């Protein structure tokens, strides 16, 4: 948006962060070499950052969403469109991000909450490469306002009324990406990886539909589109974590060496809670959880999945 000339303010956590971002005019830690557009301001005071904001985009790790929602709640003008870009589920509640926002934000913005999701690897977006996304809301006018604010010649934005599907697609595809990385790390080959990703998508769609999502959403940008980007890309952190697991590192070792969030780890745990709640079978998610937390080796996990009883595809 700022790159298109719209005034945008980046809300930081403290004065030191504001100062270093202002000085460098780039985020040297997370997106080095990508200069801030002139219309991007930086502020650590929420009342200053949010004054006159017609729209707020929140993109923090999912385990930080609630505290950030609390931080901005009192500063949102009635009617401000609130766009969640976080792709995760909260622990231990297993709530979707819009549900967390609805609990924390004032009633005057609750019917303005949207979630944005799609194949949107941050580095490519920051470099101005072409991309598409979906913005979903229970309130069509809010989704349409976000669409027109975010749309540009390089960023094509679709709307959706399937908030559950778009949010679950974005959060759960990260679990599939962990497994795709394992396929890469174990050199399983393209047939096996295609099979894994396809069955993974079927599994997350099954949970999504049981939770109230529209099946077609999982064939769209927030489902298949993001599965393709995340499972294939060297830029994906979730795919990277899977690859490292396959190469023999444990999740605690990988976490200690990473500066970035890999949402698939918490999403696997939250998804298993939802799977029990909605009585859905999720063998890939269960196996992924056991690799992450119970020491199951990725190779044994693959053998287990291949030896499950066979049946019809659907
Ligand atoms: N990186 C990507 O390609 C994409 C990421 N997302 C989603 O956006 C969310 C955040 O991802 P990234 O920024 O890439 O993660 P990251 O791990 O690369 O960076 C974390 C960001 O969150 C900030 N942060 C950390 N703790 C915070 C706190 N307590 N309060 C406020 N800000 C805090 C950090 O300063 C940093 O800017 C995740 O849910 C991710 O799935 C969505 C689309 C693309
Ligand atoms: O969601 C993403 C791309 O659409 C980013 O995926 P990672 O968090 O795995 O890097």
Automatic annotation (TrEMBL):
Domain Glycerol-3-phosphate dehydrogenase NAD-dependent N-terminal residues, every copy: 3-142
Active-site residues from the entry: 173 (proton acceptor)
Residues where substrate binds: 87, 237-238
Range of residues in the leader sequence: none
The enzyme's E.C. designation: 1.1.1.8
Short name of one Pfam family: NAD_Gly3P_dh_N
UniProt keyword list: NAD, Oxidoreductase
Swiss-Prot/TrEMBL GO biological process terms: carbohydrate metabolic process; glycerol-3-phosphate catabolic process
Catalytic reaction equation(s): sn-glycerol 3-phosphate + NAD(+) = dihydroxyacetone phosphate + NADH + H(+)
Stretches assigned to the Glycerol-3-phosphate dehydrogenase NAD-dependent C-terminal domain: 162-302
UniProt xrefs under Gene3D superfamilies: N-(1-d-carboxylethyl)-l-norvaline Dehydrogenase, domain 2 (1.10.1040.10), NAD(P)-binding Rossmann-like Domain (3.40.50.720)
Enzyme class at the top of the EC tree: oxidoreductase
Binding-site residues, NAD(+): 122, 237
One cellular-component annotation, GO: cytosol
Classification via InterPro entries: 6-PGluconate_DH-like_C_sf (IPR008927), 6PGD_dom2 (IPR013328), G3P_DH_NAD-dep (IPR006168), G3P_DH_NAD-dep_C (IPR006109), G3P_DH_NAD-dep_N (IPR011128), NAD(P)-bd_dom_sf (IPR036291)
GO MF terms, alphabetically ordered: glycerol-3-phosphate dehydrogenase (NAD+) activity; NAD binding
Annotated family: Belongs to the NAD-dependent glycerol-3-phosphate dehydrogenase family.
UniProt xrefs under HAMAP family: NAD_Glyc3P_dehydrog
Protein name: Glycerol-3-phosphate dehydrogenase [NAD(+)]
UniProt source species: Geodia barretti (Barrett's horny sponge)
């Amino acid at each position: 948006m700022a790159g298109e000339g719209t005034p945008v303010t980046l809300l930081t956590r403290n004065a030191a962060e504001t100062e270093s971002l202002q000085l460098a005019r780039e985020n040297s830690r997370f997106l080095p070499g990508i200069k801030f557009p002139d219309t991007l301001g930086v502020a650590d005071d929420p009342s200053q950052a949010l004054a006159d904001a017609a729209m707020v985009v929140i993109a923090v790790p999912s385990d930080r969403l609630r505290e950030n929602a609390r931080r901005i709640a009192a500063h949102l003008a009635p009617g401000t469109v609130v766009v969640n870009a976080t792709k995760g589920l909260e622990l231990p509640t297993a709530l979707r991000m819009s549900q967390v926002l609805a609990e924390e934000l004032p009633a005057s913005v609750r019917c303005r909450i949207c979630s944005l999701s799609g194949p949107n690897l941050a580095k490519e977006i920051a470099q101005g490469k072409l991309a598409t996304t979906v913005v979903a809301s229970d309130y069509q006018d809010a989704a349409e306002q976000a669409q027109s604010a975010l749309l540009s010649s390089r960023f094509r934005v679709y709307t959706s009324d399937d908030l559950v599907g778009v949010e679950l697609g974005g959060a759960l595809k990260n679990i599939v990406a962990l497994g795709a990385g394992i396929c890469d790390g174990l050199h399983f080959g393209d047939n096996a990886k295609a099979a894994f990703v396809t069955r993974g998508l079927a599994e997350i769609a099954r949970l999504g539909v049981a939770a109230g999502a529209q099946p077609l959403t999982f064939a769209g940008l927030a489902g298949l589109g993001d599965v393709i980007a995340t499972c294939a890309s060297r830029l994906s952190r979730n795919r990277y974590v899977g690859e490292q697991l396959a190469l023999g590192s444990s999740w605690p070792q990988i976490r200690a060496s990473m500066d970035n969030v890999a949402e698939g780890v918490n999403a696997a745990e939250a998804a298993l809670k939802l799977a029990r709640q909605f009585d859905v079978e999720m063998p890939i998610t269960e196996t992924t959880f056991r690799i992450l937390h119970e020491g199951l080796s990725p190779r044994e996990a693959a053998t287990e999945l291949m030896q499950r009883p066979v049946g019809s595809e659907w």
